[in-house]
Specification:
Layout lengths: L1 E11 L2 E10 L1 E4 L5 E5 L2 E3 L1 H6 L3 H14 L18
Antiparallel strand pairs: 1-2, 2-5, 3-4
């Protein structure tokens, strides 16, 4: 079985993050032709996938994160957040 760039939602520090992984499930057979193990190589593709996305989706994630902060602040408006590509 092979899965390429499968999306997952990970929760870190009470914040949901999108992550993308490619993985395989490869059976390992012994001399008696019985499967004795499963080899599961996993590759993190998140940075390649996320960097290929358009800035508006990143803008929405950033704006949502700023709005979720529990510190006193002024009203956060959507047009007040700027994102610059490197």
């Amino acid at each position: 079985m092979f899965s390429n760039q499968t999306p997952f939602t990970l929760t870190r520090n009470n914040y949901n993050e999108e992550a993308y992984y490619s993985f395989s499930l490869i059976p390992l057979f012994g001399s008696d032709e019985r499967c004795f193990a499963i080899y599961n190589p996993v590759f993190d593709n998140t940075s390649a996938i996320v960097s290929g996305k358009d800035a508006p989706s990143t803008h929405c994630v950033l704006l949502s994160w700023i709005k979720s902060l529990e510190v006193p602040r002024g009203d956060v408006r959507e047009d007040s957040v700027q994102i610059y590509a490197l």
